[in-house]
Write a structure and sequence with these properties.
Strand order of the largest sheet: 3-6-1-5-2-4
Helix content: 10-25%
Distance between the termini: 13 Å
Strand content: 25-35%
Shape: globular
Number of strands: 6
Order of helices and strands: EEHEEHEHHE
Number of helices: 4
Length: about 140
């Protein structure tokens, strides 16, 4: 449903980026970008409004981190629990030596990137620019609970 009531919901960190369009999000799995048509429902944990932007880019850190799947069905990082992005585990727990799949030091725990236009729609543009990251709930309508 549009409100995400039957889909999986994860509480993760969001950062921002300059997208190819002014209104989109990035998730860390290549399939979503290249198959196209994927949309998530996203809402800040504190304040702000719910929105449903399209997934049009890969990021913020990895390209094969489908953290919304059960551990055993993830493409990589199968020792992590569902709804825990590899970047979050690397940042807080030194998972994978604190690095992403390319060997870069993970500098924030984000599991989703928003364009500033998407952040504006949710009423968190100034907050995400000021803090660099915010906690959000994300519903993945293609994944059932």
């Amino acid at each position: 449903s549009a409100d995400g009531s039957s889909s999986l919901r994860c509480r993760i960190y969001a950062s921002y980026y300059k997208g190819h369009t002014s209104y989109e999000v990035a998730l860390p799995h290549r399939r979503l970008k290249f198959e196209g048509g994927y949309r998530v429902t996203i809402r800040p944990v504190i304040g702000g409004r719910r929105d449903r932007p399209l997934v049009k880019e890969v990021g913020p850190w990895n390209t094969y981190d489908n953290y919304w799947k059960p551990s055993a069905k993830r493409d990589r990082w199968r020792t992590l629990p569902r709804c825990v992005p590899e970047a979050q585990a690397a940042y807080f727990n030194n998972y994978n030596k604190g690095e992403d799949e390319f060997g870069r030091t993970v500098r924030n725990p984000a599991g989703i990137d928003l364009t500033l236009a998407a952040a504006e729609q949710m009423g968190i543009r100034s907050k995400i620019r000021r803090k660099g990251i915010v906690r959000v709930y994300v519903w993945y309508p293609w994944v059932k609970r």
